[in-house]
Specification:
Elements (H helix, E strand, L loop, with lengths): L1 H18 L4 H8 L3 E9 L3 E7 L4 E8 L4 E9 L4 E6 L6 E7 L3 E8 L4 E9 L1
Antiparallel strand pairs: 1-2, 1-8, 2-3, 3-4, 4-5, 5-6, 6-7, 7-8
């Protein structure tokens, strides 16, 4: 009976360990984008942007709007494949930036549906 209990415990441990996920690879993949980035955007508005991407894919920074003559917060995220999405300004009346990052460059489009303007953006890792 003691051997049956030991075998049962070993099986439970083996199943539990095999079902666990390893999020370490995801963080490592996002870490290739980590660092300081900067670039420009053009279209219905134009300006510059700077952002810091952390190892978890969180993006924080600011964008300067030539139309508004002010800096606005930039907040978003990037996934392990480099797909990027951020809001510049507020979610209610800001612009949505979408695109993709590679190891040291990124590009995409932006849209402000409130003001009905849009354009494109590019950037590089500093």
């Amino acid at each position: 009976m003691k051997q049956v209990k030991i075998i049962y415990v070993i099986l439970v441990l083996a199943v539990g360990l095999s079902c666990s996920t390893d999020n370490g690879n995801e963080s490592q993949e996002q870490a290739i984008f980590a660092g300081n980035w900067s670039g420009t955007y053009t279209g219905g508005d134009s300006g510059t942007w700077t952002a810091t991407i952390d190892s978890n894919g969180s993006v924080e920074g600011e964008a300067f709007s030539n139309n508004l003559q002010q800096s606005l917060p930039l907040n978003g995220s990037i996934d392990t494949s480099g797909d990027f999405r951020a809001t510049v300004g507020s979610a209610m009346n800001g612009a949505t930036f979408k695109g993709a990052f590679a190891s040291d460059q990124g590009s995409g489009t932006w849209e402000n549906s409130t003001d009905q303007i849009s354009g494109s953006w590019t950037g590089t890792k500093d």
